[in-house]
Design a protein that fits this description.
single chain; 9 strands; alpha+beta; 7-stranded mixed sheet; Glutaredoxin
Amino acid sequence: MKLTAGALAPDFELESTAGTVSLSGLRGSRVVLYFYPKDDTPGCTREACSFRDSMSRLQGHGATILGVSKDSMDSHHRFREKYGLPFALASDPENVVAKTYGAFGKKMMYGKEVTGTIRSTFLIDPQGHIERVWSPVKVDGHVDQILAALDEAGSSASGKKTTK
């Protein structure tokens, strides 16, 4: 299933480093939902640390960050602690949510086709609709893309307010 901008983001409930989390429980704020392959690997660590290093700017847009992988809760807790990650990581051990979002499937890795997590990010609006999709994600510069989309969403929201 390939989700696109404008679609209602599928609800889910997962265990996370902040307790049980659901998309419906995050309504009212923008959500940056990102799927990544594995805790404490080079690309995933760079991605998580990029979110960490830009946290104040992301929160300035009212964004809640939630990372999802199939790793165990123990792995997530170690990963968060090791890198001082200030956002929750959720465990999707059977890739059910990743598959629902189209973030699991066939991909190319080192020139070979494999099945696994497709690094993907979904920007979800406060009403639960998908605003933007990035898939597959290239780690370098990705947080800047998200911030630009948040800036754009903020200026169009403020534009709507002034026209009323």
